[in-house]
Structure formats: structure tokens, C-alpha cells
């Protein structure tokens, strides 16, 4: 079993390499202040959308990431490829934290 830093590195690579098909573009509705506030609020966590500091993937916030990204007003701001990348990252993090995602959510975002 992997422990410590090595496990964290493997987990990070697992989440981001499996679903890094599309580079996420900077969103015009997300300011530098928004990004700074997210970094301050969530600390040193991985985000499904790291460029815009959206959808934290830690155990404490994974349910919120699933919920918020599932809203049309949020996922509609991304291209189809970006949506699939972000949804994949969220799904991988949920699995890592033992959180079930509904088949409907997965289908909505083009995941198996």
C-alpha cells in the first residue's frame, strides 16, 4: 500500500492524467480576486477546473463539486470537451473518496 507523499502524488496523477484531454480556458466571469478567494477558502486542494479555481476535489467538498457542476448555469459555461474533462476529474475524485455518483449525472456528462 502506498503511503504519504508517494500516495498523494499517485492520487493526483490518477485524477489529472486520466481526464486531462482538454486544457480548460480561463473564464471571463472569474476574476483574479475570485481565484484568490477560492485559494484562501479551500486551501491547498486540487480543483477540477484548476485554471479558474472551481470545484474543489477534497473529501470535504466533493459532494458540492458534484452538485454545483451538475447545474446547467455552471457546466454550461464550458465547451463540451472541457465539461467532459471536468466531469471526469470529479468522478475520479469521488471514487477516490468513496462517493457514489448517480448514473444520470454520469450520462449527462458523457461518462460511463
What does this entry look like structurally?
With about 110 residues, the protein is mainly alpha-helical. It has one domain. The chain has helices at about 5-20, 30-40, 60-70, 70-75, 80-95, 105-110, and strands spanning about 45-50, 55. It is globular and about 35 Å long.
Number of helices: 6
Structural domains: how many: 1
Count of DSSP E strands?
2
Give the overall average pLDDT: 86
Which regions contain 5 or more consecutive residues with pLDDT less than 50?
A: 17-21
Q: What key phrases describe this protein's structure?
A:
mainly alpha; 5% strand; 112 residues
Note the topology:
Elements: H1 4-18, H2 32-42, E1 47-49, E2 54-56, H3 62-69, H4 72-75, H5 80-96, H6 103-108
Antiparallel strand pairs: 1-2
Helix pairs in contact: 1-5, 3-5
Please sum up the structure shown.
The protein is mainly alpha-helical and 112 residues long. 54% of the residues lie in helices and 5% in strands.
Amino acid at each position: 500500500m502506498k503511503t504519504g507523499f508517494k500516495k498523494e502524488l499517485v492520487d493526483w496523477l490518477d485524477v489529472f492524467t486520466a481526464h486531462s484531454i482538454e486544457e480548460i480556458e480561463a473564464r471571463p466571469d472569474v476574476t483574479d480576486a475570485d481565484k484568490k478567494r477560492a485559494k484562501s477558502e479551500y486551501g491547498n486542494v486540487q480543483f477540477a477546473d484548476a485554471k479558474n479555481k472551481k470545484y474543489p476535489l477534497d473529501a470535504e467538498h466533493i459532494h458540492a463539486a458534484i452538485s454545483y457542476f451538475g447545474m446547467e448555469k455552471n457546466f454550461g459555461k464550458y465547451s463540451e470537451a472541457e465539461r467532459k474533462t471536468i466531469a471526469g476529474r470529479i468522478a475520479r475524485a469521488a471514487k477516490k473518496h468513496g462517493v457514489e455518483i448517480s448514473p444520470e449525472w454520469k450520462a449527462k456528462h458523457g461518462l460511463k
